[in-house]
Design brief:
single chain, about 190 residues, mainly alpha, Tetracycline Repressor, domain 2
């Protein structure tokens, strides 16, 4: 059973992925999570900034675990693209990546003390995901000197495909990018998609 605090963090991540960080208010998180009204400042004394940071951390960990479980680089692709394919369909193309949503909004320049910690968490999440993909590529035989660049290509192509799929309300960008990345990884690793 999850606690009201955990439900609030998960709700914040889910709302951010569909709405972005700016439109996601604490009242929305309370309503979505079913947490008692007074619990927000009890659990998050740092206010909205703390809640957003923890939502990004939750999303970072969620995806890192998925990436780490993949048995090969091609399974990383299948899992990433397959998961988001389902998320986009189930959400009527509203579900994006909460980490990217936070990064793109870049915060209020008049309140950098509020936005900087959230942006730093987003950067750390993206770096972590790229590192996991890089290690999987190395394990599959991609030379270490090339693995970082290929991992960054995978991550940025994946995130970009999600954005284009959401904007066009079409899964084709995901399918096209997944196919091209699979061919590239296959050529670099000598593995074949099963």
């Amino acid at each position: 059973m999850t606690t009201p605090r955990e439900r609030m963090v998960v709700s914040a991540a889910l709302l951010i992925r569909e709405r972005g960080a700016h439109p996601t208010a604490i009242a929305d998180v309370l309503q979505h999570s079913g947490a008692p009204r007074g619990s927000a400042y009890h659990y998050f004394p740092g206010g909205r900034t703390q809640l957003l940071c923890e939502a990004v951390d939750y999303a970072a960990e969620f995806m890192a675990e998925r990436l780490s479980r993949a048995s090969s680089s091609l399974r990383v692709l299948d899992d990433l693209f397959g998961y988001y394919r389902t998320q986009l369909q189930d959400s009527d193309f509203r579900a994006g990546c909460p980490v990217v949503a936070v990064a793109v909004e870049s915060g209020d320049p008049d309140k950098p003390e509020q936005s900087a910690p959230v942006i730093e968490r987003a950067a750390a999440a993206l770096t972590r995901w790229s590192d996991i993909i890089e290690q999987r590529l190395i394990a599959d035989g991609v030379p270490r000197a090339d693995a970082a660049a290929l991992a960054m290509l995978v991550l940025t192509s994946f995130e970009g495909a999600i954005v284009v799929a959401r904007a066009t309300r079409d899964l084709k960008p995901l399918d096209l990018v997944a196919g091209q990345l699979a061919s590239l990884i296959d050529a670099r690793t000598g593995t074949r998609r099963k």
